[in-house]
Amino acid sequence: MNGCVIVTYRCNAKCHMCNIWENPSQPDNEITPDIAAKLPSGLGRINLTGGEPFLRDDVGEFVKILRKKAKLVEISTNGYYTEKIIDIAQKFPKDVMFRISIEGLPHLNDKLRGLKNGFDHALRTVLELRKTGVKDYGFSIVICDKNALDLLAVYDLCSQLGVEFGNSTMHNSWYFHKHDNRISDVKLAAKVEREFIRALLQSRRDSYGMRIKDWLRAYFNLNILKYLEGRGNIMTSCTAGSDLFFLDPYGNILPCNGSENPWIMGNLKERNWNEIWNGPQAQMIREKVAWCDRSCAFIGTARFDMRRHPWRPLSWIVINKLRLAIGRDIIYY
């Protein structure tokens, strides 16, 4: 099971696809590291995120606790607070990974993220991470029609730097405080997404391991493509609330961050983990998840579907790499 710990709803960016910055949590009400200590052990991965997590000064305390709960702690940040980030990287080089969020090349990134010199800070952070012992770090992007034309350029930048490149797409939900995100130019977004999938399958990464990751991301991006086109979801089912949970800044345990309204299983400030996870409220929420028709395209849940049905991504990768090798196009669906 994986988890996501949202340590704050405060954010220094004003992203076009997310209004979390307009709905900040108050520092006095945010969870403290001792609440995170109540999470179960034996987890696979925990994503430590926000808002912007490095607006807090105790990120290191959270990492100390979470590294004992999971095999890996992934920290999602916009990379603005370079010194704080590098401090964590140097203290926990084997326990953490970083994804630095950007929306495109410098001009477009700063415009869409509403953060002056945001790209400069993000790039500096990645370059400084290269000097640490952290092995898994890189950029991530939220794909939409507004930044589609920068997508391949950012991927090329990651390839040249030899760093990871994660991606998602816009969603409407309680978490983002958005219900009007939409793709205006579907044709452009889908066209570039197809080119991106081809580029991933034809990855020229120096590392064989990173090439394999790119091939698997190509399959995940089929889900992004279908989502952009409003065609549903290629994954079998959503297991949020079973394979995945969220802990919000107020101590609430939720199955995901994609529902229209927060589906709260219980509060970790008031009850212990087992009481919440095995309680009747949690079961009711899982039933809601089972009937959910939002067809989200999040890697957090897609990852489990790909692991449970490995023949699907693997066979698709093999078939389409062979098709590209003989000059034919990819079978997208």
In short:
The protein has 333 residues and is an alpha/beta fold. 41% of the residues lie in helices and 14% in strands. Helix 6 (148-161) packs parallel to helix 7 (186-201).
Structure overview:
The chain is α/β, with parallel strands linked by helices. Helices cover 41% and strands 14% of the residues. The protein has helices spanning 33-36, 59-66, 82-91, 106-113, 118-129, 148-161, 186-201, 208-228, 273-277, 280-291, 299-308, 311-325; strands spanning 2-6, 43-49, 70-77, 96-101, 137-143, 164-169, 244-247, 252-254, 266-267. It has a nine-stranded mixed beta sheet with strand order 6-5-4-3-2-1-7-8-9, sandwiched between helices. It starts with a strand and ends in an 8-residue tail after the last helix.
Structure keywords:
12 helices; 9 strands; 41% helix; 14% strand; globular
Note the topology:
Layout: E1 2-6, H1 33-36, E2 43-49, H2 59-66, E3 70-77, H3 82-91, E4 96-101, H4 106-113, H5 118-129, E5 137-143, H6 148-161, E6 164-169, H7 186-201, H8 208-228, E7 244-247, E8 252-254, E9 266-267, H9 273-277, H10 280-291, H11 299-308, H12 311-325
Parallel strand pairs: 1-2, 1-7, 2-3, 3-4, 4-5, 5-6
Antiparallel strand pairs: 7-8, 8-9
Helix pairs in contact: 3-5, 6-7, 7-8, 8-12
Taken as a percent bin, the fraction of beta residues is 5-15%
Q: Could you tell me how far the N terminus lies from the C terminus, measured between alpha carbons in angstroms?
A: 29 Å
Percent helix, as a range, is 40-55%
What general outline do the C-alpha atoms trace? globular
Mean pLDDT: 96
Biggest sheet features: 9 strands, mixed
Oligomer: single chain
Q: Unreliable runs, pLDDT <50, ≥5 residues?
A: none
In terms of structural class, how would the helical and strand content be classed?
A: alpha/beta
Q: Using only CA atoms, what is the Rg? A: 19 Å
Give the helices and strands as they follow along the chain: EHEHEHEHHEHEHHEEEHHHH
* Number of beta strands: 9
What is the overall number of helices? 12
Strand order of the largest sheet: 6-5-4-3-2-1-7-8-9
